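Collaborator request log, item 7. Partner lab (contact: R.S.) asked for a structural prediction of E2 ubiquitin-conjugating enzyme to inform their binding assays.
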Amino acid sequence: MTSPSASSRKALSKIACNRLQKELVEWQVNPPAGFKHKVTDNLQRWIIEVNGAPGTLYAGETYQLQVDFPEHYPMEAPQVIFVPPAPLHPHIYSNGHICLDILYDSWSPAMTVSSICISILSMLSSSTVKAVHNDGVGILYSDDTVSERVAALDAEPEAEAQANGVAGTATEESDEQRTQVRLKNSEAKKGNVEESDEEGRFKLRNGREVFAEKAYLVGVARKGESDGSFGIEESLSELEQLADTAGLLVVGSTHQKLASPNPRTYIGSGKVAEIKSAIHAFDVETVIFDDELSPGQLRNLEKTFGGDVRVCDRTALILDIFNQRAATREAALQVSLAQMEYQLPRLTRMWSHLERQAGGQVKGMGEKQIEVDKRILRDQIAALKKEIESIRKHRKQYRNRRFAVPVPVVALVGYTNAGKSTLLNRLTGADVLAEDKLFATLDPTTRRVQMKNGKEFLLTDTVGFIQKLPTTLVAAFRATLEEISESSLLVHVVDISHPLAEQQIDAVEKVLAELDTSSIPKLIVWNKVDNAKDPEKIKSEAKEKEDVICISALTGEGLDDFCNAVQEKLKDMMVWVEALIPFDKGELLSTIHHVGLVEKTEYVENGALVRAHVPLRFARLLTPMRQTCVS
Ligand SMILES: Nc1nc2c(ncn2[C@@H]2O[C@H](COP(=O)(O)OP(=O)(O)OP(=O)(O)O)[C@@H](O)[C@H]2O)c(=O)[nH]1
Ligand SMILES: [Mg+2]
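Returned to partner:
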């Protein structure tokens, strides 16, 4: 017996699979309370364990929630099937499974599986389970196996490649056109191609194995734009790192020199044809452009490359990584906002299936639906902005409270992977994730640094920057980036061992200028000196420069110098006070010792007479006592 929905699930599109894959990672990184992710048998079905909520289910029992996806997901809602443990509850179970359609009422394409599951949880705990099917719809059958569907999914591109008979034609004639088609991991793939190819495509992401899509990279160098910024080779190699971080398998890349991009396809028609043959030769599933494409260019390229090939740009890739990595509610909201704003002008593609189904006859049908979707998206964007705003206010209150204790705040900024989190961890014993991946950190973390001389300051780790950083992302992360613009001192961490350190510095300076931070003092830290080709040369260069400190966050070298330099910089921002602190305000005296630089303390009849440099904000607190000062 076959499930009524099995045939439609077979046709689940690549886009849907991609989205599911992303959601899956998001789910694993940030599971809502009460849910435990159990098995992902393939991209089309998730099984999630829910612990029984008292009152509605048997408390303490573990239930499974299975989410099955229809052909046109995310346009159509998934079926949510509830699998109870034995013994069955007589009221709500049928054949051992139930299907809930209660969520269909509020379905919108932008909903994620996590949000569906969260609504189910709240539904279960509020005893509103009403829409239970026991007529067979959505019920699982024993022969509805996973392997069948996996085979069905993979069959299509293979058949197409064979039909075109173009395998292996892409590498020829490519030199002239500055093409660098290369098969990655070619050593491993020689010989036992089929088997090792498939095996090599499972990658570990956030502790889980995910299937890596084959990606092909495309870059454009603008004629006359070799002004010391990132060269096309370097930019593409960074794009490759981004693709790897996103869990893709890069199989080749190409680039072209153009005076100005083609308005229809961004690249020239010869290059389009060349990429097309590479797609067939390497079974490419995703083509990634190094620059932001217009919605029209995206559509035209997808049409030319064929329905199954996904085309995306650097911005979409970065958004994808952020989406996978967002570990807190605030980061997830900010990423969702950036993604929705990016999607809004690009919605057209999602509805093209409506037109295809109708043989292209009812064009208006898809268009109307696009308008509806755009409205839904705009509403969601507005709601998200509201929620982010409330978090922002909350964060601000928290910052204000922090300011009440006048410990200076030092913000670490810098290019992604420069070593900011490693430095924070080293100085504060924090355990912020630091790894050799781009965008390891999305949320600011603040920790107290206690220096050897008893002084302290707060150190904030922030999201890393990158060249060609999407403006939508900078705008969406404004709430987080406020941490930077409200700090007392910026520490710009540079990976000095990186061959493109100079260019990375420029890219960071560009974003900092956008954030209007020119009035905040800055200290530059050359990190990873242990990794530099000639560490001694780097160190002596740093000595000659003002405001540059050379360190290795990994080995701890130079950290004392770093703390001293921070203290010196902070001192520049302090004011000189002489104040008589009454004996009953003893806590003020110890705060002065913590945050300021005390020159002299003298105990007199009615208090302690202190002469010190203190932060301006704190000096204001001392004003009444300064008036009584006898100097
Ligand atoms: N050799 C060497 N490696 C370092 C040093 N500092 C950091 N690293 C390595 O560089 C990689 C990136 O470090 P992170 O601390 O995650 O960098 P980050 O600036 O926080 O990166 P994002 O959060 O992605 O912006 C990790 O693999 C670190 O171990 C250093 O001083 N020397
Ligand atoms: Mg980090």
